[in-house]
Amino acid sequence: MSSNFGDKIKLSIFGESHGEAIGCVIDGLPSGIKLDLDKIYVDMARRAPGRDKSSTPRLEKDIPHIISGVIDNVTTGAPLAMLIENTNTKSGDYSNLMTVPRPSHSDYPAFVKYGGNNDIRGGGHFSARLTAPLVFAGAVAKQILEQKGVTVGAHIAQIGSVQDEMFDKNNITSDELKKLSSVPFSTINSDAQQKMRDEIEKARLDCDSIGGTIECAVTGVPVGIGANIFSTVESKLSSILFSVPAVKAVAFGEGFLFANMRGSEANDAYKIKDGSVATVTNHNGGVLGGMSDGAPIVLQVALKPTPSISKPQQSVNLQTMKEETLVIKGRHDPCVVPRAVPVIEAAVAVGILDLMM
Amino acid sequence: MSSNFGDKIKLSIFGESHGEAIGCVIDGLPSGIKLDLDKIYVDMARRAPGRDKSSTPRLEKDIPHIISGVIDNVTTGAPLAMLIENTNTKSGDYSNLMTVPRPSHSDYPAFVKYGGNNDIRGGGHFSARLTAPLVFAGAVAKQILEQKGVTVGAHIAQIGSVQDEMFDKNNITSDELKKLSSVPFSTINSDAQQKMRDEIEKARLDCDSIGGTIECAVTGVPVGIGANIFSTVESKLSSILFSVPAVKAVAFGEGFLFANMRGSEANDAYKIKDGSVATVTNHNGGVLGGMSDGAPIVLQVALKPTPSISKPQQSVNLQTMKEETLVIKGRHDPCVVPRAVPVIEAAVAVGILDLMM
Amino acid sequence: MSSNFGDKIKLSIFGESHGEAIGCVIDGLPSGIKLDLDKIYVDMARRAPGRDKSSTPRLEKDIPHIISGVIDNVTTGAPLAMLIENTNTKSGDYSNLMTVPRPSHSDYPAFVKYGGNNDIRGGGHFSARLTAPLVFAGAVAKQILEQKGVTVGAHIAQIGSVQDEMFDKNNITSDELKKLSSVPFSTINSDAQQKMRDEIEKARLDCDSIGGTIECAVTGVPVGIGANIFSTVESKLSSILFSVPAVKAVAFGEGFLFANMRGSEANDAYKIKDGSVATVTNHNGGVLGGMSDGAPIVLQVALKPTPSISKPQQSVNLQTMKEETLVIKGRHDPCVVPRAVPVIEAAVAVGILDLMM
Amino acid sequence: MSSNFGDKIKLSIFGESHGEAIGCVIDGLPSGIKLDLDKIYVDMARRAPGRDKSSTPRLEKDIPHIISGVIDNVTTGAPLAMLIENTNTKSGDYSNLMTVPRPSHSDYPAFVKYGGNNDIRGGGHFSARLTAPLVFAGAVAKQILEQKGVTVGAHIAQIGSVQDEMFDKNNITSDELKKLSSVPFSTINSDAQQKMRDEIEKARLDCDSIGGTIECAVTGVPVGIGANIFSTVESKLSSILFSVPAVKAVAFGEGFLFANMRGSEANDAYKIKDGSVATVTNHNGGVLGGMSDGAPIVLQVALKPTPSISKPQQSVNLQTMKEETLVIKGRHDPCVVPRAVPVIEAAVAVGILDLMM
Q1: Chain C residues with a Cβ under 8 Å from any Cβ in chain A
Q2: At residue A224, what are phi and psi to the nearest 5 degrees?
Q3: Is the sign of the CA dihedral C246, C248, C252, C255 positive or negative?
Q4: Which residues of C touch A137 (CB under 8 A)?
Q5: Residue B229 and residue A125: Cβ atoms within 8 Å?
Q6: Could you give the CA distance from residue C70 to residue C47 in angstroms, rounded to a whole number?
Q7: Which of A43, A262, C109, C273 is the most buried (most CB within 10 A)?
Q8: CA distance A152 to A344
Q9: Taking CA atoms, what residue in B is nearest to D75?
Q10: What DSSP line would sit under A108-174, residue for residue?
Q11: How many CB atoms are located within 10 Å of the residue A36 CB?
């Protein structure tokens, strides 16, 4: 198991959901970067549960505590270590999970892989709570990127049958992204937002959960980051995006729609704009031959519905090796998509920063 | 630029389309593996162009020449180096590409990134021809995997508006995969195959190209390979899949369909089968919490239509910085999807082997 | 700056001497390993200052606090994060170091590299105090190695003009190593120990410091770990040994004595011993062609005298760019060699474990 | 086994001594670097055998053949692949080595590690011949470094009992290094050279071999490359230096002499020189706290006498598991030190370039 990411920025994430603390070490940050902690807290709060009925009512404080690598809010160049204490955890709620794995959770493969030694309380190291340090790292990365004129932002593109407007791929502005990345339930269209909340509430009332998609964009990336073959922008970003729990698909530009497109429809012609080369359209999502082409990077991820539902489910008892009906107790998000928006932004920011360093 | 992949198996790919040769080094292979060269040639031939009207009429011999790491067809444990000589190349066909980048090709970002020093003949190091060494490495990986009971196979799932049958995700057999991975234009349904050929021919007659999707599966993977956070099976596989030119989306299990699914529909319940734990369905594509769960690994990739079309296109002249109409000469695949099937299998095989070593 | 080591075991060290805490993350540990915390404390105590006049009188408690990756003293397989709180630090003692770099310390190159942003209190991230997390990681590694029959131990081979007996390279026992690695001032010959203490005391009374060497051995390593070219046992071990502050030379087997040896003297003939192949001598220190050969691994490191001396020294004022005489205040070890013994053992243990995983 | 080195420059070496060819791939080179092939050939020739009685009379042509990554002698930014054909090999000379391992060679551990599948002809992948691609890579690295004002050069410091003058560590000039790195048997003092040749000839007449040391220096390195903990200049350089066959010790600055030095003797005071900070002495070999300090980087390596001697030696028969007397046939260098000088320069150049990219 390796909870490490990056070539130039090395991010190591540790901790278990119900252990003492979770946290991360970010190695390779430039020195002399002034960090705005309030902006970091905004992203942490966007990910934190308990804000409304669409998320789990557990209260997490999730205050990031910087241990090293920063003096007077300025990076020193030494590894930045950060801790978030775990509080308000009720391990008892999870006590029957050891023997009966929750369907579509990590429980069963983790049991096999770690021989029953892994911490199962609250999902342990597999808990989606481990995305909090990623959001922290992403918030740091965003600030460094911002100084380079690069902006990352995302919105909920779909929840269940409800769809938001999509980005106008070739005309995304950094202001639009900044606005999206400063609010808790980011949508382009505010009507869509209410419909999405309704969709989630319906799932909740049904003791069920619901999936969705998130669209993310990056503006200001210079031409030529990434490379072909094994170092494509898509390889780097997908690698960290698939590290986010529940993400099951990653698409750049037109994604799966390319399958039914002709070259003449999919190609992004070039034009001269303000004396520079620019694309007329941005079907490719800002990446050609694995490299950024100057257009905004645009990608979409699909998140599966959280497997923690309160409906009875069929599972097996790993002790008796008999089938058993499982009812998951505790309170769980009926939809993780809204809280996942800052996580996706964070993953993209860390990936882009690693490519740009 | 780094053309290196892998943690335990280190694959380094080199060469330019119209240079002297292309090739690869595979480091970290176990010693004592008997290689069946004929099987390797089969995969190389499946990728090679010129088999029928659906692909480019250029003749490539693509005979892999092993330089080191193998004696009497048995791996020695030392790095396996392989060369494929380049023959039958007409550099003159590409002579106007330096100043006028082909839309949606790597030309423009590569020009910026490498300051005009990169080899542009035939795409240089960015040519899809560089997938030949990947197919070689994949063919080697497949044979090592086969000895561990792991089989990789893929088929064309869609070309344009034509769709093949999809895998029955929870009931894929290694025989089915072996059959698919031994033929040049792999489809599950033979009617679909003819319709796809027609679709490609239509694009060709229109001086255009067409995209598609490929579905790939892996059987026999033991429970528990991969890990969560930054070492998920999805991260590893997507990272190498996005290295394949034209791939713009990667989806596991239900992929983007998860967005409109409820947890109760998406969860894969457990049952006891032959005394072991098994999933009742396989919506998750064999990966839970980043780890293999014992069900077949099932994924889908989308490939954009090749940007090399003979229709006139708008571009810019990088010398004069004026807009210009470009007509790409030379003969090009109207659809790269059929030839990409063994490339996708190869990428998956190398990724899975790296995870299993 | 990357404070990361290892391919299979990934060790990340963070913290500054006078910051809130120092610590490490160890990723890739096997699950199910029962840790004996008392043994870890023994190594931590061997490194800790203040035990006698040979070391700095500052009191460090250095109690390692495990944050994650361990439940009931058993590893879970998730990253093991550990913190050591910093206490009893007097930053005032170091207040003039910013402008006048201490000769032969990291002060000057760090000032240039980090643009004055690095934490200079007590050496910051460059402090030898950062070896405490390495000792912790080494103590964990030793316990895993012990379960594989591998033992690491070291002794002070030389301080100033005083030399200890050297290992009988081909006949080192694990008991001998265990004994050495359980005491604070490890020497083979007890007379040498007293003379060394005297040598250190002389340096201290002279307001000076003194260097030395440490010899380290590993028994029980199976034949064939490591590899040639870039993965030699010597490469891996030297890489981590040169991470230990003050280490300026690393030698395997006869080391620099090989320069005046004939092949007929230096070669280790083979014999049959208890039905197995064994070397008659062990001039090569257990490594041939980069691989372990079954004999004990034997190496020696040289440590320079600590540059922190209280004698006046010539330096420059980085503000005025004028030469200035510097007098370093505070109390410092006149000799770091005794405390470095567990650090060297730790570095070797982590390196060997990474090779053996 | 991993024959890969580097973080930013990735060097992969492949081939077996008596296989078809040996070679390397260098990935990550900047584009647009004009290579002077003649200078590369000079270094290749310095390493090649057969120049005089001090080395093996086998004729190797060792002409590097560049396959990719270079057009018109200018790097393209794509991986540079290079091949050297193997010629003039007499495999028969080595036919008894499979069953009776040569003492102090890689034969025995390689036999165990690779289960008898490794290529044993001429040492296979373990042959010192594999240093030819390293010399090539080093020659490329030197040219890139030269453009940054960095020069690498080395000389034979000792062979047997004969010693050369040593570098005046704080006053090394790039001219001095260039002169040393352009001749085949590099010594500072020409008298020492003749005595060394005599020492080698004596060993040869005795059917024996002799060891030695090489001192290497680098001028022009900017302050602040490398970092502390796991990224020290010493870690990086020692890691690649210990990849060179026969190297058994690496020392920076005063090396093992530090053991008997006081801090007041070992510290390098600072002065102002031409308006900049400079060290008064250079005992630390240009590295402080793992970082370059602006003084020349100075290091020394010890090479053991080559284990291939024609004197009868005791070994064991791995088939019968009985002791046996071995007489190694074929012609071998009585001293590899002179030919190793360009190899050491190459290793250092590649290491420094990787740190500086």
Answers
A1: 1-4, 10, 12-16, 19-23, 25, 27-28, 31-32, 67-69, 71, 74-81, 83, 113-115, 117-119, 124-125
A2: 100, 10
A3: negative
A4: none
A5: yes
A6: 23
A7: C109
A8: 10
A9: B117
A10: HHHHHHHTT-S--GGGGGGSGGGHHHHHHHHHHHHHHHHHTT-EEEEEEEEETTEEPPPP-TT---H
A11: 12
CB-CB: which of B256, B280, B302 is closest to A302? B256
Verify whether the Cβ–Cβ distance B69 to D124 is below 8 Å.
Answer: no
> Which chains lie within 8 Å of chain C at 3 or more CB pairs, if any?
A, D
Which helix or strand (DSSP H or E) is residue D330 part of? Answer: none
d(CA A230, CA B6): 9
The two most distant CA atoms of chain C are separated, in Å, by: 72
Structure tokens at D177: 């290094």
> Which of B113, B159, B166, B228 is the best substitution to test chain A (most A C-beta atoms within 10 A)?
B228
User: From CA C337, how far away is CA C214, in angstroms rounded?
Assistant: 7
Q: In this complex, do B304 and A264 lie within 8 Å of one another by their Cβ atoms?
A: no
Lookup: tokens for D279: 């060290």
Best residue of B70, B71, B73 to probe chain D, by most D CBs closer than 10 Å: B71
CA distance readout (Å), A288 to A166, A225, A229, B109, C123: 21, 10, 12, 7, 46
User: How close is the nearest chain D Cα to the Cα of C353, in Å?
Assistant: 16
Q: What is the DSSP string of A178-214?
A: HHHTTSSS--SSHHHHHHHHHHHHHHHHTT--B-EEE
What is the Cα–Cα distance from C22 to A69, expressed in whole angstroms?
Answer: 11
Contacts of B275 in chain A (CB under 8 A): 321
Which chain D residues are within 8 Å of C109, Cβ to Cβ? Answer: 223-224, 288-289, 291-294
- Which residue in the set A76, A80, A83 is minimally distant from C118, CB to CB? A76
* C4, C289, C308: residue with CB nearest D109: C289
Put simply, the answer to whether A291 touches B231 (Cβ < 8 Å) is no
- Residue D4 contacts residue B27 (beta carbons within 8 Å): yes
CA atoms within 13 A on the CB side of B166: 14
| DSSP conformation class of B54 | T
CA distance D275 to D93: 63
Query: For residue B329, what are the β-bridge partners?
Result: none
Taking the CA of residue D224 and the nearest CA in chain B, the distance in Å comes to: 24
ipTM: 0.95
**Which residues of chain C does D267 touch, with a Cβ-Cβ cutoff of 8 Å?**
103-104, 307, 309, 313
SS3 percent helix, strand, coil of chain A, rounded to 5, is: 30, 25, 45
| CB pair distance less than 8 Å for D230 and C311 | no
- Segment C159-205, tens digit of pLDDT: 999 999 999 999 999 999 999 999 999 999 999 999 999 999 999 99
CA distances from residue C302 to A151, C305, C340, D124, D241 in whole angstroms, order as listed: 50, 10, 11, 34, 17
Of A191, A240, A215, the residue nearest A354 (C-alpha): A240
How many inter-chain contacts (B to D, CB under 8 Å) are there? 158
Query: pTM for the full model?
Result: 0.95
Enumerate neighbours of B (3 or more CB pairs within 8 A). Answer: A, D
d(CA A233, CA A235): 5
